[in-house]
Amino acid sequence: MRYALISDIHGNPIALDAVLADIEIQGGVDGYWFLGDFAAIGFDPVGVLERVSTLPNASFIRGNTDRYLISGERPGPKPEEVHNDSGLIARLIEMNANLAWTQGFIQASGWRKWLTELELEVRMTLPDGTRMLGVHAAPGLDDGPGIHPGLSDNELRTLLAPARADLVIVGHTHFPLERRVDGMHVLNLGSVSNPIIPELQATYALLKADANGYQLHPRFVDYDHQAVITAIERSHHPAAEFLTQFMRGERVSSWAHA
Fold this sequence. Notes:
5-stranded mixed sheet; single chain; Purple Acid Phosphatase, chain A, domain 2; 258 residues; 21% strand
């Protein structure tokens, strides 16, 4: 069996199409796992949902931004933080406008129900008996700091404790990594869009599994960042400058230099 494992598309069908093309070049797959953050913080939320929803044998779970679109929650800064630091006002306004813009598209196009029905996690037992869990941030969580390179083994062990799985697949932090602790294997897929790695590539993984075991193959895919910037500008997105910073490599994580 072959599966494509994908997370954090963030309303960028240009990057998504590059990933889907790479999957076909690699020989195709039997199914897909999409681990959340489909629409928000991108220029074409509906285009992404239309593409992924037509793929065969696909499983979908929610990310934190998918939940924000339904619940009306916001990631911060919180009003009390802004009260204590006026420098956060611009960030608060930008994030609220960002999510409100996407909410409008989702509501008007009829995709709200689809997002509402997303589950927290997806599970599968591989042919060799490996218990595999997919979740956006960490077992039991679609939000929070997530699984990132800064975690100690003890911190990672605590995050993975609720997993009830041998193999855990996550996204959320946009930073691809692979770790093992206490016999548990965890893979962070990174992100399709809004990259924070120096190469600014879309990242995902291919899973190959049979009765003898499984293999994970992280993939790094180039795409046209200037085309994304042009599309952002044409969309009149209220957080256009924030989005284009990712495409210009201005939001590369400090983890990349550790």
